[in-house]
Every structure is written in structure tokens, then in C-alpha cells.
């Protein structure tokens, strides 16, 4: 139940943003053209190619005594550390004083919406409005290592009600990876998965690393005032997951993940959108979803009024 509630909240945010972006087109074109700026020429905003964002590409070598010959070795070592870490639980006290058994490694979430472009241009009004909307609708959650549906291992399941307690990452999911020996008995792995459109948590290359949103077509179609000048929802609404990375530090002695940062990027593009007199407009935006592990005691209390027992 909690999984469905969280997903519907995020999809609600996307629905509101999509409507805002299209409506803002009318403001830009008909009322406030002077506050429109040309789109950035930064390659990160304009390129749709699935390319590595890592500073150092994968190099076969031995790191902290661990040999990595290929991306198969990277996936295998990550999976072993992920599974061992996610198998650990401990007791917490919730806001009502009840004892709960949750994952030991819980994360701090942060969702942002940026790079909003309407007809290839930015608008200061909508750029200022969207963060406010996101802030009012989005409440930070508390879950285990991504992809994850809950802090309670018994509720951590995918859309088919199958467990997400173990990693599903395979070598073919990985676009690039890098490994660093920290010279303290730990290594840091950075893994970039291959791009996926409309990724689903636990079901594809992006969903094997991140808590992706799934197919939002039905959510978009539920926006009663939004129509398409031509084509279908699937053709006109793209959610391209690319450029995200998982940065994980692993203790080579214990085989456990000590810290991790999952940075997911969802590049949303809408075309041929029509709302009443606003016809055949396009818009793009970037949704970033960051989760840092482990969560601080303050974050536990602020988000769920809970603490370690």
C-alpha cells in the first residue's frame, strides 16, 4: 500500500508539471515573450545520446586486492555487496513508540525538477513556479538500497509482487563503470546503466539500479485538459532515463556497502501537446532523484519521526 501511495505522489507531481509547462507556453508566446531566453548550448542539455559521463572509464585491474577483469566482475561484486548489505536489519522505534524491524541501511531522498524548456526556450516565471509546486507535493521518503519499495523488507516488492531484496544488475545493464582504490581497505565503484525509456523499477537496466517511475502514460492520459495535436501518448511523451550513476563504497573485508549515492536522471520530453487554444507545443524538463546512504538520525526523525532502538 505504501508503495502505491509513494508512486502516485510522484506521478501526481509529474502530471502537474506537465500541465504547467504546456500552459506556460501560452504565457510565453502571448503575454510575456520578453522573459523568454534561448535554450542553453550546453551539450548535456541538448544531446540525447547515451554516452558515458564518468571521468575515468572502466579499466581492468586489481583494486584493494580485488581483481576486476570485466564488467561481469563489476556486476558480480556489486551484487554480492548489495545483497549482503540489504540482508541486514535492525530495530527502530516509530513515531508511536512501536518497535519495527527495517533495513539497517536506509537512504535520504531528494527530488528536483530543472532544465524546463518550452519550444526550446526557458522561461523565468515557470522556472520559479515549478520548484514551489514540487516542494508542496513531494514528501521525502525513507527506503532501503535502491531499487526499493519500502523500509520494511517484507513490503519491498516490485509491480509483480516479487522481492526486491536482492540485486538484479547484470553486466549487459552497464554502459560504463569505474573503480577506485581508496587505500583504506575500501573501494568506490561508479556504475552508469544504459538508457531506458519509461523504465520500471526492478525490470530493466535503469530499474536494476534506481527506483524508477514506470510507465507514466496512464498518468499523462488522466490529465483531462491535455490532448495531442497528432500521435499517441506513447509517441508524444518520452521519459528517457540516461546519465545517472550509482556511486558505492564497499569495505573489502566485510563485503558491505558503507556509503552510497544513487543519482537518477529522467529526461522528459513532451511534443504536440494541446490545451484549448494552445496547440501543438513541445516542452522538455529534467527530473533528478538522489538518494544518499546511510540516512542520518536527524533525517529519520524529520521524515518519519523514528529512531534506532
Structure description:
The protein is an alpha+beta fold. It has seven helices and 16 strands. Strands 6, 8, 9, 10, 11, 12, 13, 14 and 15 form a nine-stranded antiparallel β-sheet that branches. Helix 1 runs antiparallel to helix 4 (124-137). The longest helix has 30 residues, at 2-31. 37% of the residues are buried.
Highlighted features:
309 residues; nine-stranded antiparallel beta sheet; 16 strands; 7 helices; disordered N terminus; three-stranded antiparallel beta sheet; 26% helix; alpha+beta
**What is the number of helices?**
7
The Rg value, from CA coordinates, equals 21 Å
Shape: globular
Percent helix, as a range, is: 25-40%
Question: Which helices and strands occur, and which strands form pairs?
Answer:
Blueprint: H1 2-31, E1 36-38, H2 43-46, E2 61-63, E3 66-68, H3 71-86, E4 89-93, E5 99-103, E6 108-118, E7 121-123, H4 124-137, E8 174-181, E9 186-193, E10 196-197, H5 217-221, E11 227-228, H6 233-236, E12 237-241, E13 245-251, E14 257-275, E15 278-293, H7 297-304, E16 307-308
Antiparallel strand pairs: 1-7, 2-3, 4-5, 4-16, 6-15, 8-9, 9-13, 10-12, 11-14, 12-14, 13-14, 14-15
Amino acid at each position: 500500500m505504501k508503495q502505491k501511495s509513494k508512486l502516485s505522489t510522484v506521478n501526481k507531481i509529474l502530471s502537474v508539471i506537465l500541465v504547467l509547462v504546456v500552459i506556460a507556453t501560452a504565457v510565453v508566446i502571448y503575454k510575456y515573450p520578453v522573459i523568454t531566453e534561448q535554450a542553453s548550448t550546453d551539450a548535456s542539455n541538448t544531446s540525447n545520446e547515451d554516452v558515458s559521463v564518468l571521468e575515468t572509464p572502466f579499466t581492468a585491474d586489481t583494486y584493494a586486492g580485488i581483481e576486476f577483469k570485466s564488467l561481469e566482475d563489476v556486476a558480480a561484486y556489486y551484487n554480492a555487496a548489495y545483497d549482503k548489505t540489504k540482508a541486514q536489519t535492525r530495530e527502530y522505534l516509530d513515531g508511536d513508540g512501536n518497535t519495527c524491524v527495517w533495513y539497517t541501511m536506509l537512504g535520504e531522498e531528494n527530488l528536483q525538477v530543472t532544465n524546463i524548456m518550452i519550444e526550446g526556450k526557458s522561461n523565468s516565471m515557470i522556472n520559479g513556479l515549478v520548484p514551489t509546486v514540487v516542494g508542496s507535493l513531494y514528501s521525502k521518503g525513507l527506503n532501503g538500497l535502491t531499487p526499493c519499495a519500502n523500509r520494511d523488507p517484507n513490503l519491498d516488492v516490485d509491480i509483480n509482487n516479487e522481492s526486491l531484496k536482492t540485486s538484479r544488475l547484470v553486466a549487459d545493464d552497464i554502459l560504463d563503470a569505474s573503480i577506485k582504490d581508496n587505500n583504506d581497505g575500501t573501494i568506490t565503484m561508479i556504475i552508469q546503466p544504459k538508457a531506458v525509456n519509461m523504465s520500471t523499477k526492478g525490470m530493466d537496466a535503469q530499474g536494476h539500479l534506481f527506483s524508477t517511475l514506470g510507465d507514466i502514460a496512464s498518468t499523462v492520459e488522466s490529465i483531462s485538459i491535455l490532448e495531442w495535436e497528432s500521435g499517441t501518448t506513447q509517441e508524444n511523451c518520452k521519459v528517457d532515463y540516461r546519465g545517472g550513476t550509482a556511486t558505492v563504497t564497499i569495505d573489502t573485508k566485510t563485503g558491505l556497502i558503507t556509503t552510497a549515492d544513487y543519482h537518477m536522471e529522467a529526461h522528459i520530453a513532451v511534443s504536440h501537446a494541446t490545451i484549448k487554444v494552445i496547440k501543438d507545443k513541445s516542452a522538455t524538463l529534467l527530473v533528478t532523484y538522489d538518494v544518499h546512504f546511510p540516512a542520518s538520525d536527524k533525517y529519520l526523525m524529520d521524515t518519519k519521526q523514528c529512531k534506532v532502538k
